[in-house]
Amino acid sequence: MENLFSIGEVSKYQKISKQTLIFYDKIGLFHPAYVDPHNGYRYYSASQIDYLDTILIMKKIGFSLSEIKEHMEHYNIDSSLIALRKQLTVIDQQIEELRLIRSRVAHRCDQMEASEKYRRNDNTVIEEDLDARHILFREVEEPYSLREISIATKKCFADSFQKHLPIFFQCGVIVPFSRILDGRYTEASFAFLPIEETEKVPNIKKLPAGRCVSIYHVGDYLSIGRSYRKLLDYCKTNSLKIVSDSYEFCINDYITSHDENEYITKIIFYVEPEAQ
User: Is the overall model pTM greater than 0.90, yes or no?
Assistant: First the structure.
């Protein structure tokens, strides 16, 4: 039709699907100038192409369709400036969140690239001084099986994503020392995620700086007992008193491999010399 564009033409010019244009019509965001009563074909005027440009630009900037619809009902330079200034704040927050995510992904990559070094240290006990760190934790419910540990871990991740917490993309568990002595190596009491210090939530625990013994367990989780026995024997032989529960940090786990033979878990105990 003269001076009108078909839905196919608009779709081609704007690189937008016909289905999207039909959807915009249905939600009242972008109606065609004319609909042929005989065949239902939609047609748009030249001025509407500019209007659609505005919609697509606002969508690209990050506005929701409902926000765009509300804004464009009665928009002018003042309301547009207010909307864009508000969106700048949203964009800045997104940039900061992406920077945080990037640093966490880089940290995870560094761990994975160093995994071969950890494999070479399999079953070798290391004494080291660790810096303080923080963890976001969730209690594991009875009977403390791998199922309950998985649920607690997933709750930690869900909380952190919902509340935008500064976690690292790593998980771990706390196993009470008493259970270790009883040979109940996989019955964790808490699941956790390493996290930067924050006051956004109460379930944050600070692990103090201190002297520790550690070991890298390579292999499936159910075989972790051999590494614990190695740690206990080392502490006994070297007159070291274990003064904490066990902290297990997953280096490689289900997030990075489906092959449990590639799993690497760092086990940590805080220690002090036995009294003479």
Answer: no
